Amino acid sequence: MENNKDTTLEEINKTLKEINSRQELSELFGKSDRRVENSLNQIQNSFDRIHDRAFNFNNILLGAYLVLGTFPNESPKLELWTIIFPLIILSYLIFIEYRQMEIHRFASREQQWTSVERDEYISRIKGQTLYSLFGLVLSVLCLAYLIFNLA
């Protein structure tokens, strides 16, 4: 009878250890999931801040082109038609923001994704990164054109 009690106690002890290890694993996975979610949110916030700054910078360029295209009245520093450059970039940045909104909309249904949709999401994020980088390059080129014509 004593042997049965020892065996039963050992089994209970073993079961408790398994339960504790499962709980620890569950906590680790939970922490990992929260870190992943936090990282994704930080990436998204970074994209948003970069896009906001690109919009602000482009608005400054738009103002500079407008002022330099009309001042001084007799011989402006730039031709007024060149304001089209920052306007095109502004339109492009609006397009990027629209794509970003569509990516958010798509990501909101993540619970129902298939593996194909998960791959599509990754592809969209990569494409969005390239679009954003191209928008920044266009803004820098617009600034370079402005500086070149003022020199």
- Rg over alpha carbons: 29 Å
Class inferred from helices and paired strands: mainly alpha
How many structural domains in the coordinates? 1
Number of helices: 3
End-to-end separation in angstroms reads 100 Å
The stretches of 5 or more residues where confidence is low (pLDDT under 50) are none
Write down the secondary-structure element order: HHH
Helical proportion? over 70%
Mean pLDDT, nearest integer? 87
Shape call: rod-shaped
Give me the oligomer status: single chain
Instruction: Please provide the count of β strands.
Output: 0
Strand content: under 5%
Q: How many strands, which pairing sense, and closed or not: the largest β-sheet?
A: none
Describe the structure.
The longest helix has 69 residues, at 2-70. This protein has one domain (42-150). The termini are far apart. 85% of the residues lie in helices and 0% in strands. It is built from three helices and no strands. It is mainly α and 151 residues long. The protein has helices at residues 2-70, 84-107, 115-150. Helix 1 packs antiparallel against helix 2. The mean pLDDT is 87. It is rod-shaped and about 110 Å long.
